[in-house]
Amino acid sequence: CNGVAVTSKGEIYVSNYGESRVWKLTPGADGRIAKKELFVKPDAGVKTPDGLCVDENDNLYIADMNGCQAVRVLPCGKVEILKKGGFRAPSEPCVWRGNYYISNYGSTTVEETKLP
User: Residue-wise over 25-43: b if at least 16 C-beta within 10 A, else e?
Assistant: First the structure.
C-alpha cells in the first residue's frame, strides 16, 4: 500500500500500487473498520495509484505513477483523467486554491494542473 487519504466523513482511502486498486474503508462507531469496499478497480484506467489526497468536497485525487496521469475520483466512484502525460513520475498529489499539484518521484519538480 502506498497512499492514504481521509475524507471529511472519516472514510479512509488506501491505494495499492502493485494491484492497481484503491480501497475505501469506513470506520464504525467503535473506530474499527466496519466496511471495506473496492473503490477504484484495476479496470478503471489507473495503473499504479501512488499518492492520494482529497479536497473539501471529498473528491479523491490520485497520482498514477506508471500511468503518468493525474486522476480525480468523485465520491460516486466516477473516474476522471485530469491530465495524461507530461509528468516524469507522478508520486504525491496536493489540491490547493483550485490547482492540483503533483510531485515527481526521484526529482525536485512539481507539476501544476488547473482543476476543471
Answer: beeeeeeeeeeeeebbeee
